[in-house]
Amino acid sequence: MTGITIAAILSVACIVMMLLESRGFPTTLRLSMKGDLKRESRLLAQYGQLVCTFVTALLIWQLDKTNGWRICESLWTAIAGVSLVAMLMKRLLGRVRPNRENAGKFLGPTLKHANYRESFPSSHSACAVAYTVVLAAAYPQAAITFWVLAIICAALRYLMDAHWPSDVLGGIALGYFAGIVAWRVFA
């Protein structure tokens, strides 16, 4: 199965979930995580974000003298590109996050940052998956670990009530596509 096919399947799953959500299908949780569970889950939710990517790129550059620079280019391109696209989509669509007034509604475009209305797509999920696609392609022996971390990160965005399931699926599709493009350009 090609990368584009997988991204297309994820996009269709996102649309189906969005339709279910818009029809009132119960998709949100109200979990209360405390103590170590809360701290550890917040750490895992940052997989693929700026600091994580910077540290990983630094380690790759130091440890992989043969391919490190090429892998770092792919990694930074994937993360920067998917972050920018996700931010633009959030500002254009203006979907309200779960458990807030007007939850799930698309409020339309704005130039102003407003976290409550920047739900779709999940940029954490998009970055985690883009990050994983590049790292799994570069280091296939660790692919399972990378994918488990990406799935945990994406699942936590839902479990922490930060996103609707369709936001997470949309972010995964976007990240998968961005990771494949970045890897193909720089590999």
Notes on the structure:
The model has no long low-confidence stretch (mean pLDDT 85). Helices cover 67% and strands 0% of the residues. The chain is globular and about 50 Å long. The two termini are 20 Å apart. Helix 1 runs antiparallel to helix 7, helix 4 packs antiparallel against helix 5 and helix 4 packs antiparallel against helix 7. The protein is mostly helical and 187 residues long. The longest helix is centred in the middle third of the chain and has 26 residues.
Short synopsis of the structure:
With 187 residues, the protein is an all-alpha fold.
Task: List the keywords.
187 residues
Helix content: 55-70%
Which structural class fits the helix and strand makeup?
mainly alpha
User: Approximately what portion of the residues adopt beta-strand conformation?
Assistant: under 5%
Number of helices: 7
Radius of gyration: 17 Å
Shape: globular
| Stretches with pLDDT under 50, minimum 5 residues | none
Calculate the mean pLDDT score and round it. Answer: 85
Question: Which H/E pattern describes the elements?
Answer: HHHHHHH
Give the end-to-end Cα distance, rounded to a whole number of Å: 20 Å
> What is the count of β-strands?
0
The biggest beta sheet is recorded as: none
Question: How do the helices and strands line up, and which of them pair or pack?
Answer:
Elements: H1 3-22, H2 35-44, H3 50-63, H4 68-93, H5 123-138, H6 143-159, H7 165-186
